[in-house]
């Protein structure tokens, strides 16, 4: 049977005291931070899970920002398309009104109003959101020049809503008459004066129809963005709960363990003190 020396007992006691003190400090740190994992060594697997959860939260934060941007641009598109529709509809009303009057002054007034509407449409087609023309694609030149020509590039502006889904948040101006309205309204204005504006109705109706179609598509995309925002909000709530379950402590459990550890530490301290008091004379007795 191996003999246990006094020095060996002292070393064992000191090691046990050190371990007990370390455990007490860890429990004290957990109680102070409220976290079960304060460093990766506390729970390597749990720390890895926390990192994955936080990465997902960070990604969701960016997706939420993307969705906010998309919503802002889509709302601007929606409002602008409705205004364009309204102004084009006014032009149509002027054509109809011109067919029911032979008064030259009335025709001139209706024609002048169409010219004014053309100027309004020039501005509407060049509407911007955060410094970019909403009907000009990625072109820095805008959508329509001063002569009414389309100068956009038609490149889609897309926004990523989640890891696997993107949506287009602009409208190609060429599909809603950005390069055609100016010439058409010039013809209509002259036609009202001359009494033959009705011949432009089909072309105007086609333009109005394209605006209605684009507005409907924008509405559908905006619904999708709103749904995505709700999903991100719900997922973030779940991630917060998961993170808390993975990291947070049960205060009652930790405090109970800490009290028990303190009792054990004090007991070990007392025993070690008694061992250290043993002298050579005690062994000779």
UniProtKB/TrEMBL annotation:
<keyword id="KW-0975">Bacterial flagellum</keyword>
<comment type="function">
    <text>Flagellin is the subunit protein which polymerizes to form the filaments of bacterial flagella.</text>
</comment>
<protein>
    <recommendedName>
        <fullName>Flagellin</fullName>
    </recommendedName>
</protein>
<dbReference type="InterPro" id="IPR001029">
    <property type="entry name" value="Flagellin_N"/>
</dbReference>
<comment type="similarity">
    <text>Belongs to the bacterial flagellin family.</text>
</comment>
<dbReference type="Pfam" id="PF00700">
    <property type="entry name" value="Flagellin_C"/>
</dbReference>
<dbReference type="InterPro" id="IPR046358">
    <property type="entry name" value="Flagellin_C"/>
</dbReference>
<feature type="domain" description="Flagellin N-terminal">
    <location>
        <begin position="12"/>
        <end position="138"/>
    </location>
</feature>
<keyword id="KW-0964">Secreted</keyword>
<dbReference type="InterPro" id="IPR001492">
    <property type="entry name" value="Flagellin"/>
</dbReference>
<dbReference type="Pfam" id="PF00669">
    <property type="entry name" value="Flagellin_N"/>
</dbReference>
<feature type="domain" description="Flagellin C-terminal">
    <location>
        <begin position="202"/>
        <end position="284"/>
    </location>
</feature>
């Amino acid at each position: 049977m191996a003999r246990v020396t006094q020095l060996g007992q002292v070393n064992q006691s000191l090691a046990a005291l050190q371990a007990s003190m370390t455990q007490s400090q860890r429990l004290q740190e957990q109680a102070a931070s409220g976290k079960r994992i304060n460093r990766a060594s506390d729970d390597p697997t749990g720390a890895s899970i926390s990192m994955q959860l936080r990465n997902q939260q960070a990604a969701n934060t960016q997706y939420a920002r993307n969705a906010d941007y998309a919503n802002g641009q889509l709302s601007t598109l929606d409002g602008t398309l409705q205004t364009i529709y309204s102004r084009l509809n006014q032009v149509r009303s002027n054509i109809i009104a011109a067919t029911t009057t032979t008064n030259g002054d009335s025709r001139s007034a209706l024609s002048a109003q169409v010219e004014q509407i053309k100027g309004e449409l020039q501005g509407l087609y060049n509407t911007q959101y955060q410094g970019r023309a909403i009907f000009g694609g990625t072109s820095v030149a805008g959508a329509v020049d001063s002569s009414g020509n389309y100068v956009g590039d038609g490149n889609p502006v897309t926004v990523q809503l989640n890891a696997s889904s993107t949506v287009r948040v602009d409208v190609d101006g060429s599909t809603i008459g950005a390069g055609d309205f100016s010439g058409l309204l010039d013809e209509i204005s002259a036609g009202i004066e001359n009494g033959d504006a009705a011949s432009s109705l089909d072309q105007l109706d086609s333009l109005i129809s394209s605006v209605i179609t684009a507005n409907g598509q924008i509405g559908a995309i905006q619904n999708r963005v709103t749904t995505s925002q709700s999903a991100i909000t719900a997922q973030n709530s779940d991630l917060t709960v998961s993170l808390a379950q993975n990291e947070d402590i049960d205060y009652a459990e930790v405090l109970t363990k800490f009290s028990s550890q303190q009792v054990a530490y004090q007991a070990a301290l007392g025993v070690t003190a008694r061992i250290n008091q043993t002298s050579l004379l005690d062994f000779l007795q």
